[in-house]
Amino acid sequence: MNKRLQVLIVDDEELARRLSLEYLRSHPDIEVIGECETGLEAVDAISKLNPDMVLLDIQMPQLSGLEVLEITGRRSGVIFTTAYDQYALKAFDLHAVDYLLKPFSQQRFDDALTKARKLLAQETSSSTQAIETLLTQQSEKLQRLLIRDRGQVHVVPLASIDYVEAQDDYILIHAAGKSHMKTQSLSELEAQLDASKFVRVHRSFLLQLNALQAIEKTSKDSQVAVLKNGAQVPVSRAGYERIKALLN
Amino acid sequence: MHPILSDRRRFLVYITAWMLTGVLIARLLVAADLANWSFAMVFSLPLALFGGFLTSSAYFVCRSLPFNRRSFSLAALIFASASMISGISWLGLCYGWNKVLVLALDEVEVLHMSSHLSVLFFITGFAVYLLALLAFDVYIAFDNIREADRREAASRLLARDAELQVLRSQIDPHFLFNSLNSISALTAIDAVAARTMTIALADFFRQTLAIAEKEKISLKDELRLCENFLAVEKIRFGKKLGIEFEVTIEAETALIPPMILQPLLENAIKHGIRNLPKGGIIKVTIFQRDCWLHIAVENPVSSAPGNSTGNGLGLNNLRQRFFALYGEQARVSWQRTDEKFVLEMTLPFEHNIHE
Q1: Cβ of A102 and B302 within 8 Å?
Q2: Contact present, B319 and B344 (Cβ < 8 Å)
Q3: Residue A170 contacts residue A181 (beta carbons within 8 Å)
Q4: pTM metric for this prediction
Q5: Are the beta carbons of A157 and B181 separated by less than 8 Å?
Q6: CB of A234 within 8 A of CB of A205?
Q7: What is the CATH number assigned to the segment(s) A144-247?
Q8: CATH number of this structure's domain A5-139, picked from the four choices 3.30.70.1350, 3.50.50.60, 3.40.50.2300, 3.30.43.10
Q9: How far apart are CA B169 and CA B163, in angstroms?
Q10: Contact B307 A102 (CB under 8 A)
Q11: A13 touching B, CB under 8 A?
Q12: pLDDT tens digits for B159-196?
């Protein structure tokens, strides 16, 4: 091997990180390039350092390990560590993603590393696909949106969203008086959200029913939705049918 | 089981009542100048005894027609015909017995069975049976209600027990496995600390098991449990975790349901301290005022919406548990501001007189 593998350790507990460091000592071909205590730090470190491998704790405050992957788009070279998380574990088994159950032995740790090395060597690793599917599944029970904007991660609770507007190749999320930009298509977002709460009122507009104040007629066959915060959102004819169906 | 025939005391009362009825019939016969006293008694007492047995069969008629599967017209029909049969058999018996007595006693003054008297005997048999049917019906209805009440109370009790079991066993597996992981890390770094943590963890679980079986424990015991729990958590979270206890001496003797404070501290760490990069201090205040015990837990929280703010499920469980134990007498309330989370509960102050 001509180059040492670079690894990032992400865990909110110091002792847990020290254990991983200790286990890594017997692998001279691996270099630890950083340790992160929170998911937010991990997002930064992954984008800046682009490590070959990430030892990623799932249960972390603020941002979970899975959310770190969602934001950074990181898919390969991930070894999950977790104490107990019945839902994630089931998903891992389903998609053959490797994970370490705390407390783990040196032996088990070494096995995971060997496996990860092998996968890294492959051009398109099967784990990339596996994590992709896993994340899509996890986001089905989405509670909040994670938006990364100039190095900062904004957490937008779904309940605070008024409406979402589609622009050229990104979307503008209007929530609690602020707008956030996200590179995602409106249809993709719509698919992730609860269809009984969010309705596509127009080709380029999605609004949350709770934010709706009234629907007003502007001319013979064009309508506009007036939101509780005063904003106005155009409503297409198909959109009007959809919203009517939901309100009844 | 037959309510009268299967109960000795009731049976005696029942028979006595019928015997008195027999005497009454005899008295009426004498009063109407239809027979002399001795004949009237010999005639009416055995008939009354038989009538008693005949009437007691009404219970089985009622039983065979359960309330929930009975149509009114069918029940009325069956009741009427059963009463009719009773009236006819009673009348037939009066005739028969009278004949027997006439032959056996060879007496001059026999009872003359006029059509008038026959109608009276028939109506008596009919009416008494019908009354008995209605009386048994009412008895069965009450019995059903009592039974239903008993069953409901029993099932409520069972449900409550099951609920408590579940609530008590709600020890966070994250806590266990993360602690074991910390110990695993410590063995190479600081063997003494590893041992300390192992012992604190063992003590914590041992105490949990010991108190989980009790319905109430003293606050002092609960605080000891919390200390062991915090000893483990302090090793995991280091300087991030600060804690301040303010407990009055008289409050320590209070009896409380087990594991009410420890889960709250666990929550305060999980949803509060852990989300703060610099950590924070959990404040626990417990005091007694009049006949109430007040417990307050306050912890700083991160103002940014986190992924582990929880859904209030644990707190609602606490509320339900209090309701099961104290009814309306205990109160739990909580409120979250931008910087802190405050939980307050009030429960009746009970204490162990032996302490």
Answers
A1: no
A2: no
A3: yes
A4: 0.63
A5: no
A6: yes
A7: 2.40.50.1020
A8: 3.40.50.2300
A9: 10
A10: no
A11: yes
A12: 666 666 655 555 678 888 999 999 999 999 999 999 99
